[in-house]
């Protein structure tokens, strides 16, 4: 298999080595060593991304934009095959792309220090800022309604009608709390309908493992894993960061006593992201910065609980009630976040005042 694919990049089958790389949950990735150089080969998961050419077209457009407008920016785009395309397709219609391996770089799965939160937030902000002149309407929608909170809430209500009595009973407390937080959806719909939020080029998956860091300095280098890059609202990226950086406990943690909101990490996200994006955001948009965390946490709680009530159709589970554990985890995170909401708004205001002085 690898010989057939890599030969289309001019690789001699007898001279390369292959090994599985990383622990990504969506695409399959292998590290390739050829002629003393390192590459990453990736097979696109077409069960998730049903139109892989849309991803590849988006990447082509963005690569061309950065090359012309910001040639010094590290944009990790697929290498062109011998046919001058940024991908190859095998006999079974599987799509592959080959990336250069960035030397002296690393990625991580957990935010082990506030400086990492700062560097990651800076990179996601920089990515969107540099693309501010780019018309986001040019990009294909690779995952329709990915962060459509109204739709996720509607799917949740549908699942309440069809869920099994046993699962509905087990999740009664979780269901009740999510009903109580319905106002989060109202805020989203109001902002969307005005509109007070501007459509921009957004990453849409701003977790820490989608940033490359310099091995020597720890500085952020660039954002990676660009399959979900498309038009959207900045609260999607900020919300992802607030949801996944602020607490030391991941969404998989069953012990909710470990969930907390770290103010220092919030401060670093504010400084990192707004250090790049402050001049791009309107005053109205800035008022949604803290709300972005509630938006993202509530959305993910809905998704986990909806999948639980639908008998675990979407998320892979490792044990019974795994999705319910995940949903309860996000419920507690939302409660902790709400408790700190006033303090986070104070930190945000103080930062904005400092920037004006």
Question: How would you explain this protein's 3D organization?
Answer:
The chain is built from 13 helices and ten strands. The chain is an alpha+beta fold and 357 residues long. The protein has a five-stranded antiparallel sheet, with no helix packed on it. Helix 8 runs antiparallel to helix 9 and helix 11 packs antiparallel against helix 12. It is globular. The termini are far apart. The mean pLDDT is 93.
Care to give the gist of this entry?
The chain has 357 residues and is an alpha+beta fold.
The percent of residues in helical segments reads 40-55%
Instruction: Give me the CATH fold name of the largest domain.
Output: Aminoglycoside 3'-phosphotransferase, Chain: A, domain 2
Total beta strands: 10
How much is the radius of gyration in Å?
21 Å
Q: How would you state the average pLDDT, rounded? A: 93
Query: How many helices does DSSP assign?
Result: 13
Shape field: globular
Major beta sheet, specifics?
5 strands, antiparallel
Instruction: Examine the secondary-structure arrangement and name the CATH architecture of the largest domain.
Output: Alpha-Beta Complex
Counted up, domains total 2
Identify the strand order in the major beta sheet: 1-2-3-5-4
List segments where confidence is low: pLDDT < 50 over at least 5 consecutive residues.
none
Q: Please state the structural category.
A: alpha+beta
- What is the CATH homology-level superfamily of the largest domain? Aminoglycoside phosphotransferase (APH), C-terminal lobe
């Amino acid at each position: 298999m690898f010989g057939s694919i890599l030969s289309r990049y001019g690789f001699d089958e007898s001279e390369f080595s292959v090994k599985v790389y990383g622990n990504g949950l969506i695409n399959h990735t292998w590290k390739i060593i050829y002629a003393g150089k390192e590459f990453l080969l990736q097979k696109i998961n077409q069960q998730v991304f049903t139109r892989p050419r849309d991803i590849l077209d988006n990447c082509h457009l963005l690569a061309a934009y950065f090359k012309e407008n910001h040639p010094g920016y590290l944009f990790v785009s697929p290498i062109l095959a011998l046919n001058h395309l940024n991908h190859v397709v095998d006999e079974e219609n599987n799509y592959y792309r080959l990336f250069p391996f960035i030397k002296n770089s690393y990625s991580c799965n957990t935010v082990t220090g506030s400086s990492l939160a700062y560097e990651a937030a800076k990179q996601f902000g920089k990515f969107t800022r540099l693309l501010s002149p780019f018309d986001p309407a040019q990009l294909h929608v690779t995952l329709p309604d990915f962060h459509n909170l109204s739709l996720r809430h509607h799917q949740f209500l549908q699942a309440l009608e069809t869920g099994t009595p046993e699962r509905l009973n087990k999740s009664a407390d979780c269901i009740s709390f999510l009903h109580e937080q319905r106002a989060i959806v109202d805020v989203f719909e109001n902002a969307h309908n005005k509109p007070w939020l501007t459509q921009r080029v957004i990453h849409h998956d701003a977790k820490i493992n989608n940033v490359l860091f310099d091995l020597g300095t720890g500085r952020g280098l660039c954002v990676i894993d660009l399959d979900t890059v498309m038009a959207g609202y900045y609260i999607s990226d900020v919300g992802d960061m607030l949801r996944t950086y602020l607490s030391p406990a991941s969404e998989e943690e069953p012990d909710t006593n470990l969930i907390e909101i770290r103010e220092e990490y919030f401060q670093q996200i504010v400084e990192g992201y707004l250090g790049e994006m402050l001049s791009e955001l309107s005053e109205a948009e800035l008022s949604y910065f803290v709300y972005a965390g509630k938006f993202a946490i509530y959305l993910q709680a809905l998704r986990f609980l909806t999948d639980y009530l639908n008998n675990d159709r979407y998320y892979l589970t490792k044990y019974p009630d795994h999705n319910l554990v995940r949903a309860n985890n996000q419920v507690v995170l939302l409660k902790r976040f709400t408790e700190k909401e006033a303090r986070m708004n104070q930190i945000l205001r103080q930062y904005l005042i400092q920037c004006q002085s």
